[in-house]
């Protein structure tokens, strides 16, 4: 019995529905979930993740999920020439957005977004701001977070 | 003053805020998504991510050399602290069968809030173990379902066998200010550790 919101079944209003729920596929399975999935794709997400990234899965691990991404002037100018997912990301990041938010809003796997963001950054279409590794242990930063939370009424 | 490091300085329209994050962990159905929803300024978002799993307690791990990855749903929200600082709250996927390796979430985090349902204490053991091993500041927060807690806090502390320096608190996941206060306990824990580290550096 779960008196609270059942987290994996009932999403709050406004939340995005996970692709595998839309396609009616079963829950995530270690053997049928990640890149290289051999399962039949449903009509919701017809492209398998590895097709979007041209087969690459590695090399983007350094992009943390809270990494901030902003479209550059170059990216805005070139957006008409970009492929669908690239164009979507460039269009979405006019204002800074985290990698996690990009993935959620475009309903793409986090790993896919990391690779695509890495590509767009290499082409100069996006600026990528990696989190500062010292911030979580920086006294001044922590005090700012505390002040910000206390201001929530 | 800490600021974000630019990899590709190409005149962005607006400088992004520095992102920091807190991990919201705990067993299935303890109220992680509710906690994020109560305080996040956006409706909690969901994305799919790969997590490394070690199926301890389910499979004989000696027969499964190495780790496996599995795709899970990841819920998160955010709070704008000030114009140049943004706090993200990432909820760990609630899968009680697996001992997840939440490295993707936990590395670079300020700390973690481990949510506990006092009727199902053992659900939070993997999270407590994980953050202890990682050395990340964490707080155990008992969610007051329907305003009650099944056991008193000393009993819960005894049952969880967490160190005395790990704060144990109760909160209501549905209440914004209660969630805020629980997060502030995590912040206090992280701040105390950061100050000790700064003093240690100054003393040597």
Summarize the structure.
Chain A is 37% helix and 7% strand. By secondary structure, chain A is mainly alpha-helical.
Describe this structure in words.
With 153 residues, chain A is mainly α. In chain A, 37% of the residues lie in helices and 7% in strands. Chain A is built from 7 helices and 3 strands. A 3-stranded antiparallel beta sheet of chain A has the order 2-1-3. In chain A, helix 5 (99-106) crosses helix 6 (110-122). The radius of gyration of chain A is 18 Å and the shape is elongated. Chain B has 204 residues and is α/β, with parallel strands linked by helices. Chain B has one domain: Rossmann fold (3-Layer(aba) Sandwich), CATH 3.40.50.300. Chain B contains 5 helices and 9 strands; from the N terminus they run E-E-H-E-E-E-E-H-E-H-E-H-E-H. Chain B is globular. The interface between A and B is large, with 76 and 84 residues. Strand 3 (126-130) of chain A pairs antiparallel with strand 1 (5-6) of chain B, so a sheet runs across the interface.
Main sheet record of chain B: 8 strands, mixed
CATH class of chain B: Alpha Beta
Q: How many domain units of chain B?
A: 1
* Shape type of chain A: elongated
Continuous helix count of chain A: 7
Please provide the count of β strands of chain A.
3
Mean pLDDT of chain B: 83
The termini of chain B sit apart by: 22 Å
Structural class of chain A: mainly alpha
Number of domains of chain A: 1
Global Rg of chain A: 18 Å
* CATH homologous superfamily (4th level) name of chain B: P-loop containing nucleotide triphosphate hydrolases
Q: Largest inter-chain interface?
A: A-B, 76 and 84 residues
How would you classify the quaternary structure? heterodimer
Biggest sheet descriptor of chain A: 3 strands, antiparallel
């Amino acid at each position: 019995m779960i008196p609270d919101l059942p987290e994996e079944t009932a999403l709050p209003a406004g939340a995005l529905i996970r692709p595998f729920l839309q396609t009616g596929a079963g829950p995530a399975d270690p053997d049928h979930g990640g890149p290289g999935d051999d399962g039949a794709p449903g009509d919701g997400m017809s492209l398998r993740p590895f097709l979007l990234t041209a087969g690459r899965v590695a090399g983007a691990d350094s992009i943390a999920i809270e990494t901030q991404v902003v479209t550059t002037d170059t990216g805005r100018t070139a957006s008409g020439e970009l492929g669908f997912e690239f164009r979507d990301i460039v269009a979405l990041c006019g204002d800074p957005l985290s990698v996690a938010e990009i993935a959620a809003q475009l309903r793409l796997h986090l790993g896919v977004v990391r690779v695509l963001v890495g590509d767009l950054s290499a082409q100069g279409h996006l600026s990528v701001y990696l989190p500062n590794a010292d911030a979580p242990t920086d006294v001044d930063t922590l005090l700012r977070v505390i002040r910000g939370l206390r201001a929530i009424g | 003053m800490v600021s974000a490091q630019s990899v590709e300085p190409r005149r962005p329209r607006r400088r992004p805020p520095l992102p920091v994050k807190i991990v919201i962990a705990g067993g299935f159905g303890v109220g992680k998504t509710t906690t994020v929803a109560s305080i996040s300024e956006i409706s909690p978002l969901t994305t799919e991510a790969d997590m490394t799993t070690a199926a301890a307690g389910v499979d004989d791990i000696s027969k499964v050399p190495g780790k496996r990855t599995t795709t899970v749903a990841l819920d998160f929200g955010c709070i704008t602290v000030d114009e140049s600082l943004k706090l993200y709250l990432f909820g760990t996927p609630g899968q009680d069968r697996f001992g997840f390796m939440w490295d993707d979430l936990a590395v670079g985090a300020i700390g973690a809030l481990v949510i506990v349902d006092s009727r199902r204490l053992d659900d939070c053991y993997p999270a407590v173990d994980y953050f202890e091993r990682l050395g990340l500041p964490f707080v155990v927060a008992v969610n007051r379902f329907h305003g009650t807690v099944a056991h008193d806090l000393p009993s819960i502390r005894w049952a969880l066998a967490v160190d005395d320096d790990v704060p144990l608190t109760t909160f209501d996941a549905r209440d914004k200010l209660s969630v805020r206060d629980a997060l502030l306990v995590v912040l206090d824990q992280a701040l105390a550790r950061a100050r000790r580290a700064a003093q240690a550096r100054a003393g040597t």
